[in-house]
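Give me structure tokens for this 344-residue protein.
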Amino acid sequence: MRRGLHLGLALALCAAAASARDWAKYPAVAQIAHANEIFAIGDAHGDYVRLAGAMAAAGIIEGRPARPEDARWCAGHAVLVVTGDMIDKGPRAVDVLRLLMAVREDARRAGGNVVILAGNHEAEFLADTSPDSPAPKGRAFAKQLKAAGMDPAQVRACGGEIGEFLCSLPFAARVNDWFFSHAGNAGGRTVAKLTLDLQEGLDREGYRTKQLIGADSLLEARLNGQGRNVWIDAGMPERGEKELLVDDARALGVKHIVEGHVPSAVAFADGIKRERGEMFQRFGLLFLIDTGMSQGVDDSGGAVLDIAFGGGERATATCPDGKRTLLWDSVANQDVGRAPACAR
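Here you go.
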């Protein structure tokens, strides 16, 4: 009986926290009309050292700070988008979050912008209403919170600095004509429709909403048994992969879709394959930026996507050792672009 009351109270607290979200201040989809440069980083998964190294090599922060609070933004008026999954797998998820929080504040003072998106690991951690049995995707993070003197249940209920931060994150972003989300699948919706669905789902169901953690959701969509992107594959054979991506991008009002979430090999219908740990683009439409940087995954040492404007657009992958690989530019409009997994 006590356990039932406890779970009911926890559920009520989480539902209240979700429904109280100020959507004007913390939008479901962040939108930035103009940026002269965009950086994007995929799943850091608790690896503070590799994340800081990749950010420093790309010119986002100064040096490789030993402590997250020492991070300093050095990318001017650029925009950085982080596509979620900051927690779990690696040993320093709390420091990863604090690094991004510190850089976001410093960027604002310098005229830049940092947009940090929720991934499925953050959403599923927040969706679990029982502090006694954390969701599998939040178990490692809950242990690290406890080690740092924080109560996972309080964080899950949007309490404290970390909880407030996690509960304020947007789920997607549109910057210039680029769309960013964790798993890529906007379901052919416009930004307005996607925003409405995300808000209504969270207000009604909290972080348990299928809009966030459903099997084919914006944050959770995965590969099928053939290693193909399930949300793209679902639209075939009526439409080809390129046609489907063009249609999805058009609905969103963009030209490019960027997703994290998948560091593994991805197969395309024409036999083209993205290998593990690569930063990869297809048709100039779909950019896969989860390189498995965390030591808990260890597919690569991490990489940053750098999108530059002026005299055409260029998308380049930067490794922590400074190696840069062009993936796509608007003049050549390459059908395939890949950067080998960066050295660990």
